[in-house]
Structure formats: C-alpha cells, structure tokens
Amino acid sequence: MNREAMKQVLAELVENETGIRPDNLADDTVLTEGLGMDSIDLVGLVVQIENRFKIKIDTVELRQVSTVGQILDLLQEKLALAPKVA
Amino acid sequence: MKLRHPWAIRFSAFALAGLAKGWIATLKFREVFLDGIVHPISPASRRCIYAVWHDSILMVAKKRTNIRFLISQHADGELATRVCDYFRAGAVRGSSTRGGASALLQMTRPDDGHLLITPDGPRGPRRRLQPGIIRAASITGMPIVLAAYGFDRAWRAPSWDRMAVPCPGSTVYCVVSEMIQVPAGLSRPAVEQWRSDIEHRFLEITESAERWAAGGPRPVVPPARTERQAA
C-alpha cells in the first residue's frame, strides 16, 4: 500500500473517531489538535490502525509520534517488516 | 514535600506499605455486591475496570488480587508505584494530564489482571467522573464495576479529594455495583451520556454506602444474593 492510500485510510479512521473526515492530511498536521482529537481519541485511532493494518504500536512508539507524517512513517516501517502472505 | 530521590522514594514506600498493612489489619469490612458476584472476580474469567473514588483509594490495599492501578506520571506517582510493588499490585503510569494516551494504550493490551481507576483523579473535581474511564471501557471491552465506601469513623485529609483515613478499629462499608458494559465505538455525545449516567450511579451507591456506615439500612440486594461480612 502506498503512502497516499495509507493517508486515505487514516482519514477514514479519523472520521470514525471524531465524526468528521479531515479535508487534507498534511504531514505536519498534529494528530491531536490538528485533527480535533484528544489523547483518548488518539488511542482509539491507534487501536483502529492496529486492527486495520494488523500491526502493533507500542507505548514507546506512541510517545514519539505526534504528527500525521510521523504516524505514516511508522506505518510504512511496520508494514515493510510485516510477514508477507503468498 | 515532594520526594525525588529514588532511595527516599523506596524507603518511604516501604514505610508506608508497612504502616498501611498494620493499620488495615485493625479495620473491619462489610461488603455488599449488588449483582451477587463477589468482586474482584477471577481475571481469568473476566477482566474488569474497577472504579474507586480518589478519596477512598486507600481501601483497595485490603484486596490482594491481580489488579493494575492507573497512577499519575508525576513524582508522587513513583511513590505510589513503589507502594503498589509492596502490595504485589501492578501499576500503569499515566493520567489524564500527562501521558494519558500511552497509559490507555497499555491498558488495551491483553493481560491477566484487572484495572483500577480513580475516575475523579488525579486532581478532581472531587467525585466528578472523568470521561476517560468510559472511553477506556469502550476501547477495551472491559465492563466497569463501581466500588463505593462509607466509614463509621474516619479522618478526612484537607486535600482536594478529602482523602478518607479510617480510624484504627473502625468499620468500613463497601457497596459494589453490577458490571456495566459500555458499548464499543462510542461517539463523543454518547460518551458524555454514559459518563453522566455512570457518575449518577456511582454517586447513588456512594450515598447508600455512607448512609449504611452512618447506621442506615443495608443497601438492597436482589433475593438469593446475600451480604458477606468480611473480616
């Protein structure tokens, strides 16, 4: 999945969390204030991401992620390491 | 006075835990379980989020079970974490004011224990249920169980929560609610409705516990579910 497709999925998941689909997910958009979420919404988003992409994000990684760009980078990294099903 | 030095924290935790164990041994406990189930139940059968008002948090030291406490990330939280170690209880660091997202994420992980939250903590307002516990229940799928306490004789600290310290030899009255299952994927308006409803329920059973402690009637339990007097 390319970065743009991931961004579309992320927008959908943010809409599930907040009820509002973000117009434009720029890389420097802050995950909380920039998307109208609080820290609890952020966890809800992370759980959705984990379920959708079949990955796990640990608490240390979560602390290091604050923008859309950073979470997309983390997603790409984890998906690249995930075992591929033939 | 804030404790910062690790050894000062360890020594204080050891002293506090020892003091607490001795003091708890002098207290008498009377409990009512409104759903007829003796809590905390085995986490192997069902993990629960137990809620205790911040002013009654000392009472959970009575229970020796597989439970993790949500504790503030501030320095006072380090002391509380060490005290939990002496009671063989786990701690999840983080609160609504700092590191909350990481703490809540940690709580979603499969674990063999229950969770304990003070829903009006870490700084109040006193007995105002914060929405975090509702979202935690919605995200994790764990039911909420409310535990309210009344005291026949207790000193109240001049803190924001008026922390209760029961007098040695006194009786503590505990009323435990039914399990409350919060639906997954709640919208924000729905979270607020659940927050309000559960806060109302918690205040209701708190009043019944305090009334019982003051010599009032034992809270009503459905037929065939009997009160257990715990030593």
Give an overview of the whole structure.
The complex is a heterodimer of chains A (86) and B (231). The relative contact order of chain A is 0.18. Helix content of chain A is 59%, strand content 0%. By secondary structure, chain A is an all-alpha fold. Chain A has one domain (3-81): Non-ribosomal Peptide Synthetase Peptidyl Carrier Protein, Chain A (Orthogonal Bundle), CATH 1.10.1200. In chain A, helix 1 (3-18) packs across helix 2. Chain A is built from four helices and no strands. In chain B, 32% of the residues lie in helices and 20% in strands. In chain B, helix 1 (6-24) packs across helix 2 (75-86). In chain B, helix 2 (75-86) links the parallel strand 3 and strand 4 (90-93). Chain B has an eight-stranded mixed sheet with strand order 4-3-5-2-6-9-1-10, with helices on both faces. Chain B has a two-stranded antiparallel ribbon with strand order 7-8. Chain B has one domain (27-230). Chain B is globular. Chain B has 231 residues and is an alpha/beta fold. Chains A and B meet through helix 2 and helix 3 of A and helix 3 and helix 4 of B.
